[in-house]
Amino acid sequence: MQKIFIGLWLLGVCFLHTSCEKLLDKEPSDKLSNEATFADIDGARTALVGAYSSLLTTELYHVNRMVYPDLASGNLQFSKTTNVKMMDIYSFLQDAESSSMNATYSKAYNVLTNINNILTAVEKFDSTNLVVKRIKAEAKCIRALLHFDLVKLFARPYSYTPDASHDGIVVNLKPRFYNDPLPVRSTVKETYDAIIQDLREALVLFTSTNGIISNGYVQNTFNFTSAASLLAKVYLYKSDWDNAYTYADQVIRSSTYTLMTRAQYVASWTNKTPSAESIFELNLEATFAGTTLGTYYGDNGSDQQYAATDDLMNIYSATDIRGRSSLFIPKGNYYFTGKYTGVSTKATPIKVLRLSDMYLIRAEAAAHKNDLLQAGKDFDAISMRADANLTATSFSSPQQAIDAILLERRKEFAFEGEYMFDRARYKLGVRNIAFTDYRMVLPIPKASTNVNPQLKQNDDY
After folding, report:
1. How many other CB atoms are found less than 10 A from the CB of residue 378?
2. How many Å apart are CA 74 and CA 389, to the nearest integer?
3. Residue 240: CB partners within 8 Å, gap ≥ 6?
4. CA atoms within 13 A of residue 212's CA, in its CB half-sphere
5. Do 386 and 322 meet the contact criterion of CB atoms below 8 Å apart?
6. Number of H helices and number of E strands within the chain?
7. How far apart are CA 26 and CA 33, in angstroms?
8. Dihedral of the CA atoms 405, 411, 416, 418 (nearest 10)?
9. What CA–CA distance (Å, rounded) separates 29 from 7?
10. Reduced to 3 states, what is the DSSP secondary structure of residue 32?
11. What is the pLDDT of residue 29?
């Protein structure tokens, strides 16, 4: 049987999950073969724990994936001049050889490889077993999330060409062997098709809201509702307004989650307990000792370096609870966000999907469907929650609604890794960079194109 090697990644997971003790007895090597690792369902369960843990690294959701869209788009500025991360991104000087985001590309594909190993291995188990179905469903959701992140970072948006036939990313749906043909980039349409297929298949596989990981909150692993929420967002980025509306509406109407009140909002960012509206968030293990997003965003550490720009601060009214009087922390000449202020094991979980997003997705889709009444209701649910002085909105045109919703998305999801992508969806540039500028998309790492001549580089890099 041909072997797929998981490597040191899974060994690292063994310190986080007790069942790894059995795994290490199966093959005394620094690289555990596929057969030994997945000899039983517990092995697949442990590997899935490792996949979730891998999302919380500095290359992915603990720094790069969250910081890049806000730093490049004008929401963030540096609060110090030395020992800073991603200065090349801020200055739009990234190149294929040394871009700060190269590590994100490599890490994402590393996790995808491990996810594919899981999905391949569990095929030998009873397909009617509820745990097996659950492992498949969650793994497909993680795979969809990573492909979605990669296509937003390293390819032009879906709307760039009329049929989305422009270069997307390498879609990685199965384990790769050394003698396999070198991969090529799929089109953006093909990439989105693969993401949607994974999420639709996951929805069929989910049988309950209980994850296969026993500890933690239900929001810490994918389930039916979070898969539907991610699917709504994927359709939003595809400009498929009917499906974006349908899935966002489904999540909202399920009543599984509820919007926080104005009084609850600020405090929800200061502890590890999921809020009423948190759908999917990444939480730290009790033994975590690495760098967190709060290390760089917060006002309480030597590594703090990302502060809000004046441009961002000025979009909030004086009575908006998301503004400077409530959710920002003044220090010297800068304002730091109150989101993710905790560090180490006290860090606030990374909020990947929130019910607020579903309301604004439904609002945006409704505007494109010329349902201005629904667009206004959903817009008000978020804007009036944040600002008690606002009155009900009455949009007079779809464009007026869309403009207001995009501004509201900037207010609501600042520091959550959204703004760059929201502007790109509408072919809008950022700061002094036009949408047509090649730097609106990241380069494919040179290390990857060097070993694979068939891997096409993004234009002008």
Report:
1. 28
2. 27
3. none
4. 25
5. yes
6. 19, 6
7. 10
8. 40
9. 9
10. coil
11. 33
d(CA 104, CA 114): 16
Q: Which residues contact 442 (CB under 8 A, 6 or more apart)?
A: 94, 99, 101, 105, 153, 154, 458
Residue 48, both tokens: 């899935």
Dihedral in degrees, nearest 10, Cα atoms 225, 415, 48, 357: 10
Cβ-contact 170, 136 below 8 angstroms: no
On the 0-12 / 13-18 / 19+ scale of CB atoms within 10 A, 346 is middle
Round to whole Å and give the CA distance between 166 and 157: 9
Residue 162 phi/psi, 5-degree rounding, is -60, -35
Other C-beta atoms closer than 10 Å to the C-beta of 349 total 26
Q: Report the alpha-carbon distance of residue 204 to residue 198 in Å, rounded.
A: 10
- pLDDT at position 348 is 83
pLDDT digits (tens, 9 = 90+) for 232-269: 999 999 999 999 999 999 999 999 999 999 999 999 99
Residue 140 has pLDDT above 90, yes or no: yes
Backbone angles phi, psi at 433, to 5 degrees: -105, 120
**CA–CA gap between residue 253 and residue 81 (Å, rounded):** 48
Q: What is the pLDDT of residues 318-350, one digit of tens each?
A: 999 999 989 999 999 999 999 987 666 667 899
Q: Encode burial over 55-89: b for 16+ CB neighbours within 10 A, e otherwise.
A: bbbbbbbbbbbbbbbbbbbbbbbbbeeeeebbeeb
Q: DSSP readout, 190-218?
A: HHHHHHHHHHHHHHHH---S--S--SS-G
- Rounded to 5°, the CA angle 131-224-156 comes to 115
Could you say which of 3.40.50.720, 3.10.20.30, 3.40.50.2300, 1.25.40.390 is the CATH number of the domain covering 8-442? 1.25.40.390
Residue count (the chain): 461
* 5-29 tens-digit pLDDT: 343 333 333 333 333 333 333 333 3
Task: Please tell me the distance from the alpha carbon of residue 433 to that of residue 71, in angstroms, as a whole number.
Answer: 13
Task: Read off the pLDDT of each residue in 379-394 and give the average, rounded to a whole number.
Answer: 98
Q: What is the DSSP letter of 159?
A: G
For residue 335, the cross-strand partners are 330
